[in-house]
Amino acid sequence: MVLSDRDIRIALKQKRITIEPLQDSDIQPASVDVHLDKKILVFRNSRRPFIDIHEDVSDLTEMVEIKEGTPFILHPGEFVLGSTLESIGLPDDLVARLEGKSSLGRIGLLIHSTAGYVDPGWNGNLTLELSNVNNLPVTLYYGMKIGQISFTELSSPSDRPYGSADLGSKYQGQKEPTASRIYRDFQG
């Protein structure tokens, strides 16, 4: 069951869901609007000829910061990592789904490739996988509405929520855009 605005407000008041910062106007009928933070991870292709998923790729990215009122230009075919301004926290009996705003999708801006699912137990800012599939550059601004998150109840609480010690949760507690850590899956 997807939570309605009424149930989202109740869960926020009870601190079952945490969203910081949050304005009441961001609560929609069955979701909450999230905003783009100022840090962007840009890929620099000149450092390696390919990405080997067995290796740490953090040296392939460079953090840049969007200045207040100045756009970051996302070029056609470009892929960068951003993050939500909001830190999100979920209990062990709710999952969340992050989706783009339809107005942005209509100009070719995608906010995630595959990472729209947020596990029960998650805590931190969400990394956005920003792609421009248009043939024109698109501007991104710090603080702009970038997506919306909805919440769904599980049939029962998770036995091992995200962040549990034995899961090896790679991104729990992240505060800014975080490069892939898939290489950790191959470490002994």
Protein architecture, described:
The chain is mainly beta. It is built from 2 helices and 12 strands; from the N terminus they run H-E-E-E-E-E-E-E-H-E-E-E-E-E. 25% of the residues are buried. The mean pLDDT is 94. The protein starts with a helix and ends in a 35-residue tail after the last strand. The strands form 3 sheets. Strands 1, 3, 4, 6, 8 and 10 form a 6-stranded antiparallel beta sheet that branches. A 4-stranded antiparallel beta sheet has the order 2-12-7-9. The protein has a two-stranded antiparallel sheet with strand order 5-11. The protein has helices at 5-13, 102-105; strands at residues 18-20, 32-35, 39-43, 61-65, 72-74, 79-89, 94-100, 109-110, 117-118, 123-132, 138-140, 145-153.
Topology record:
Elements lengths: L4 H9 L4 E3 L11 E4 L3 E5 L17 E5 L6 E3 L4 E11 L4 E7 L1 H4 L3 E2 L6 E2 L4 E10 L5 E3 L4 E9 L35
Antiparallel strand pairs: 1-6, 2-12, 3-4, 3-6, 5-11, 6-10, 7-9, 7-12, 8-10
